[in-house]
Predict the 3D structure of the following.
Amino acid sequence: MDKSKKVYPPSAPIEPFFQKMMRDPEFKREYDALEPEYQIIRQIIEMRIKRKVSQAELARRIGTKQPSIARLESQKRIKNLDYLQRIANALDADVQVRIIPRAARANNRRTVKRV
């Protein structure tokens, strides 16, 4: 047996844990508050891949380094609107920001499929 290869035990499925956590009102509120940002990040990743742009190339286009793009995609946090605009420009896209009343947002959320 090759001792240089690390063997990891099988992990537990995340879904049962997630479903349990979603029953906690505070956890659900915090999770839901992050959803708009998650949606934007998913759109950036999908567009970057569709346009066949690597993280390194996207970083070069906006004047940053590849780890910055990797953090954006993995940590699901957008620094600010200016950063988002620079990414959109680099992907030949536009940014549209809307403010929606919470009641309307709750109705829309029921029709949005989570990935």
